[in-house]
Amino acid sequence: MDHFEYRDRTLFCEDVPVPELAEKYGTPLYVYSQATLLHHLKEVQTAFAEAKPVICYSVKANGNLSLCRLMGQHGSGFDVTSQGEFQRALKAGPAGAKIVFAGVGKTDAEIEFALKNGVFLFDVESEQELLAIGAVAQKLGVKANVALRVNPDLPPKTHVKTDTSVKGVKFGLDIETIIDVAKSVVGHPGLAVVGLHMHLGSPILKAEPYRQGCEKGVALIRAFRAQGHNIQYLNMGGGFGINYRKDEAKPASAFAEVILPAVRETGCQLILEPGRFIVGNAAILLSRVVFTKSTGGKHYVIQDAAMNDLIRPTLYGSLHRIWPVHPAAGVPVRPDVNGDPDDPNPFRAMPNCFNQDVVGPVCESGDYLAKDRPLPALTRGDLLAVFSAGAYGMTMASNYNSRVRAAEVLVTGRTHRLIRRRETFADLVACEEDCLT
Ligand code: LLP
User: Fold this and answer.
1) Is 363 a catalytic residue?
2) What is the pLDDT of residue 359?
3) Which domains are delineated in the chain?
4) ipTM above 0.95?
5) Per-residue pLDDT at 339
6) Quick one: average pLDDT of 167-182?
7) Are 336 and 327 in contact (CB under 8 A)?
8) From the CB of 277, is ligand 1 less than 6 Å away?
9) 275 is in an annotated binding site
10) What's residue 346's pLDDT?
């Protein structure tokens, strides 16, 4: 579900015609729909309402301060993975917002910062980290609340680069040894082991892995309690998938159905860390065609967004729907669910379309947003919408080729406002200029 729709062959974001945004803010431009964002947060809150969950929006999906502020205003806490993300949450969130801190490489300085700034829980990923947190906490004269993150050793369930619960990945404590680790810190003066954490991977399109994870989690919580730990939290992480190519994602209620029984059984408070599910479908990346060209039997659309703006296609081979903002007569509008939802290629057999590569200006053959994608004929100046770009789009953007990062704009009904200005050349060189001899 999202609030991007075609009206009279023009793409609208909520009630704003998208060309108006290109005109005002330029391209490439990330365009967010506030209603879409809040709809998805609400969907998670409603599906899990019975458990009164602590929802900690995952800042790594999109850390824009205005979006984080919105999340906080609507009852969300934050999941962070670095001091920088922690500081974003502090800056944007309401006082007292719950912040959980995951990540395999927290430094002592980050641990200290978190403890001094009211971290709700550390999600602990190794024995050394556990001891480091204990030591820093003791130095500060406090007790750190920690959840032990388990790698539940489940079968593969998503892209190999983002599957975090198969054997051998760097995340979490081994399920075989986590009980011994928990035992080793019973009574530790700097540590309160109050939870169990797992994050299975991202994106996950089925509920089954959560059922399997919960099953293992319930047994672990029982074991930790038997050791004397006062376990109050079950943190099931994030990972809920979204519709990229078609109507393929599960509603939040499908995940709730398999997670809530574990919450009931353990009596724990549930924590969730959704990122993509909330913000993923809430944005398009808007770009403008610079040139088209045919070479070596291939047709290229060269537009002004590139791998530095959205790296997911290059990095993971991810599919993002791309469609003209003004589809010509005879061209269908928005081919997201194109007839058969089980068709692996929902773009097949589109009238008046031919296969094209959508590429950017960056100097790499790997710089593309789509390959062999049926698209209608395009001309210089046409606007393109790259859909489902809200999660891991801007947060993974870079300045490669000294390209300034895109601006971001937030749409609410008929209004829109800038939530990140376009970078300038001065921004690009700011950290180097003073060092110039
Ligand atoms: N919690 C933890 C501990 C995580 O590592 C992640 C994501 C999340 C929550 C949020 O997951 P989500 O609900 O957004 O699926 N760059 C990749 C995704 C990397 C995900 C990393 N961890 C992509 O573009 O697909």
Assistant:
1) yes
2) 98
3) 4-32+280-432 (2.40.37.10), 34-277 (3.20.20.10)
4) yes
5) 33
6) 95
7) no
8) yes
9) yes
10) 52
Closest listed residue to residue 387, CA positions, set 2, 66, 67: 2
Residue 123 CA: which ligand 1 atom is closest? 3
245 is in an annotated binding site: no
Single pTM value for the model: 0.96
The mean per-residue pLDDT over the stretch 407-434 comes to: 98
pLDDT (0 to 100) of residue 332: 83
Residues in the chain: 437
Pocket test for ligand 1, best of 40, 197, 202 (most atoms within 8 A of CB): 202
Strand pairing class (54-58; 269-272): parallel
Percent of all residues in the chain with a pLDDT value above 70, rounded to a whole number: 96
Report whether residue 162 contacts ligand 1, using a CB cutoff of 6 Å.
yes
**pLDDT of 342:** 52
337 pLDDT more than 50:
no
414 is in an annotated binding site: no
